[in-house]
From TrEMBL:
InterPro entries: MurNAc-LAA_cat, N-acetylmuramoyl_amidase_3. The keyword Acetylation does not apply. GO terms for biological process: peptidoglycan catabolic process. It comes from Bradyrhizobium betae. Residues 1-25 form the signal peptide. One of its GO terms (cellular component) is outer membrane-bounded periplasmic space. This is N-acetylmuramoyl-L-alanine amidase. Keywords: Hydrolase, Signal. Its EC number is 3.5.1.28. The lineage of its organism: Bacteria, Pseudomonadati, Pseudomonadota, Alphaproteobacteria, Hyphomicrobiales.
Amino acid sequence: MSRARGIIIGLVASILLSSSALVDAGQAAAVRRFAKPKAKSPPSTAKCEKPKFRIVVDVGHTPDSYGALSARNDPEFGFNFHLARLITAKLKSAGFVATRLLVTDGKARPSLVKRVSAANDGRADLFLSVHHDAVPDKLLETWEFEGAKSYFSDRFSGHSLFVSERNPHFATSLMLARMIGRQLRDQGLHYASQYTMPVMGRYRRQLLDKDVGVYRYDGLVVLSQTRSAAVLLEAGSIINREEEMAMNSPERQEVIAGAVAAGVGEFCERR
Ligand SMILES: [Zn+2]
């Protein structure tokens, strides 16, 4: 375990001990396994008053079910946790004081519905899930890092944004994703274009906005079962050796968190 990973796990352990909503979401569980949202006309996102606007910033995966492993063998969960925490801080300092960081634990699939419940029961106005990207296993190559056989793929890089047409606020979710995407683009960052390629197989997605990289992903429970507008951000690829270094840097983390907060701020002003 790397030192960074040890620190992250320690930090997370202390948060988990004091948190009330501790659940997990894997990325792509089948939506049909779960009940449909009870309310047809959710109250969320009707208007936006910053201090009252309840944003849930969801840390993708859990310490037990940590998502992807980076090119240097650090778990995705740690990357997600750092960035989500920074996004939460940026939102709060921008006036969104009701923003909440959602850190969860346990195994991936059984806790999906609980993660959604945490957002729905807390009557979130906005759900933002933070992840870092990898590639399908068949694209992985091997290298040696710190004496250990490790896996990487330098073929793709960039961030991407996902929304679900099954979300009751699909149009609103898409609008927010576009605003965040534009902010990221304005910072000189590029989006991951590979999701339309045949090589992605079952991970192929429909590109809804070719300018800023918003994709449709209906199979994601956290997007389709939340009763608020919901967006999932893949902030960058940690299986790409160069981009992993960037994603680990405070400079890049600042840029991305700032762009997300600016996108949410613009979204709020337009409502
Ligand atoms: Zn993930």
